[in-house]
Amino acid sequence: MKISLIRVFLWLCVVVQATFFFFAWTSFTPYIGSVSIEITGEGVSSTARLAMSAQQRAIGATLAAVPLLVLAYGLWRLDRLLLNFRRRDLFTPQSIGHLRAFAGATLASTLLTIAEPPLRALAFWLLAGGERHMSAGVRSEQLILLLVCSLFYLVTRLMQEGSRLAAENEAFI
Predict the structure, then answer these.
(1) In degrees rounded to 5, what are phi and psi of residue 171?
(2) What are the residue boundaries of the structural domains of the chain, listed by start?
(3) I want to staple 95 with a disulfide (CB 3.0 to 4.6 A). Which of 54, 72, 84, 128 is the partner?
């Protein structure tokens, strides 16, 4: 697969994520013809979202934006890595740094996504009082993503070591 096509998919992913975020935290409902599409944030139904005050919606959106922005940073670093690959800069310290930053940002974004719903519930409770019910959940996809990000982190360490050994071998010749 061509690097340009992967970059198009990557930026399409960013646009789709931003679009979903917009519809999840505003009162707008997207329509395709006469069919309405329900897009909600994690743990927020459409009914609950529409019942939120503007202040609650702003707090929820602010908390939900943090993992999204961290993920966007990671995807930007992945884009920089792909540009390095196009230039054939495969095992350079810069490419290794981009891969490490992508893995770290994706890992951090996943952890923040897991923590965001209970933090939002806590913020809403502190804001308005009321019921003190908080729940947290971890989906199997999130666990797999945590594992894959950790593996990528290990791969970057192996790439660093390989690069160091290659430089050491060149010094002997």
Answers:
(1) -70, -30
(2) 3-172
(3) 84
Summarised one tens digit per residue, pLDDT across range 147-170 is 999 999 888 888 888 888 877 887
DSSP state of 91: S
Q: Residue 152, Cβ neighbours under 10 Å: how many?
A: 17
Q: DSSP label at 87?
A: T
Residue with tokens 């933090």: 119
Question: Could you tell me the sign of the dihedral formed by the alpha carbons of 160, 166, 167, 172, in that order?
Answer: positive
Condensed to tens digits (0 to 9), the pLDDT of residues 70-98 reads 999 999 999 999 999 999 888 888 999 99
Q: How many other β-carbons are positioned within 10 Å of the β-carbon of residue 106?
A: 23
